[in-house]
Amino acid sequence: MPNSIKVTQTGGVVLVELNRPKALNALNQEIMEEIVETLVPLDRDPSVGCFVLTGNEKAFAAGADIKEMGSKTYMDVFTNDLFADWDKFGAMRTPKIAAVAGYALGGGCELAMMCDMIFAAESAQFGQPEIKLGVMPGMGGSQRLTKLVGKSKAMDMILTGRMMDAAEAERSGLAARVIANDELMAETMKAAETIASFGKPSVMMARETVERALESSLREGLMFERRVFQSMFATEDQKEGMAAFAEKRKAEFKGK
Ligand code: CAA
């Protein structure tokens, strides 16, 4: 049983709550291992249509665990490839929504950005304050934040270490939605249920195609999209979805 996360499945939605409240959900080795070991098998489970990753009202996560990291040497972090296992979380193919209230700092902000979209409570505070610790982002922040908000604002965040509130995060493209604090979880779960109600293969293909936009030229991305779109005509869900529209009824997707 995991110790630093709580995992509950309701229908097709898996809710993952980071659970180190005394350390503001600082991301230590244990929490990383538990997330990867618990969620990667669920990623392959056809009954799981969406993940929601969240913290608590005070913190989504206040960063990598500074106390655990502080005394490590270069050889420790190089030989153990510090943070590399987070790539396994980032590479999961089932959609993941980060529901962020309170602090999402350093690795916490980077973990939220590894998700496919960020829903921010009005209380959310995003930041990459590593510069204040004599380091810099190390879980993807320099790359993902720049892709999401552009060079100028990424430089501002990373070089000054300042925080960004929910309104600024939405305005600049980091957050998909800003939600009233007490409605964050209900609205996020509703969106996750909607995603999980669709055929999983088409959702996975659509997700993968959007991801491709961040990594390829427009021409390559458009070709990738066209080929994936065309491949969907091999699925039963495409036949069902289009037939249901023509017959004016709700589609019954089978994930096939
Ligand atoms: N690592 C380890 N412990 C942390 C932590 C972190 N990132 N963030 C908070 N904590 C601990 C605090 O040490 C404190 O523990 P104790 O009660 O044992 O003293 C507890 O959580 C509560 O924190 P505070 O008392 O500091 O709470 P606050 O409300 O006064 O301040 C805060 C909140 C502004 C978020 C402050 O805790 C803070 O600045 N945290 C560090 C943020 C940070 O620098 N994050 C980047 C980490 S490095 C990184 O993430 C590298 C990377 O790119 C992957």
What is the gist of this entry?
The chain contains twelve helices and ten strands.
* Shape, principal axes of CA atoms: globular
Determine Rg (CA atoms, Å). Answer: 19 Å
How do the strands of the widest beta sheet line up side by side? 1-2-3-5-7-10
Task: Estimate what percentage of residues fall within beta strands.
Answer: 15-25%
> What structural class should be given to the helix and strand makeup?
alpha/beta
Largest sheet, described in full? 6 strands, mixed
Poorly predicted runs are: none
Continuous helix count = 12
Number of structural domains: 2
Bound molecule types: acetoacetyl-coenzyme A
GO molecular function: enoyl-CoA hydratase activity
InterPro entries: ClpP/crotonase-like_dom_sf, Enoyl-CoA_hyd/isom_CS, Enoyl-CoA_hydra/iso, Enoyl-CoA_hydra_C
Pfam families: ECH_1
Keywords: Fatty acid metabolism, Lipid metabolism, Lyase
Mind explaining what this structure looks like?
With 256 residues, the chain is α/β, with parallel strands linked by helices. It folds into two domains: 192 residues, 2-enoyl-CoA Hydratase, Chain A, domain 1; 49 residues, Orthogonal Bundle (Lyase 2-enoyl-coa Hydratase, Chain  A, domain 2). Helix content is 45%, strand content 16%. The chain is built from twelve helices and ten strands. The strands form two sheets. It has a six-stranded mixed beta sheet, with helices on both faces. A four-stranded mixed beta sheet has the order 4-6-8-9. A hairpin with a 2-residue loop joins strand 1 and strand 2. The radius of gyration is 19 Å and the shape is globular. It starts with a strand and ends in a 10-residue tail after the last helix. It binds acetoacetyl-coenzyme A (CAA). The site of acetoacetyl-coenzyme A has 22 residues, from helix 2, strand 6 and helix 5. The site of acetoacetyl-coenzyme A (CAA) has 22 residues, from helix 2, strand 6 and helix 5.
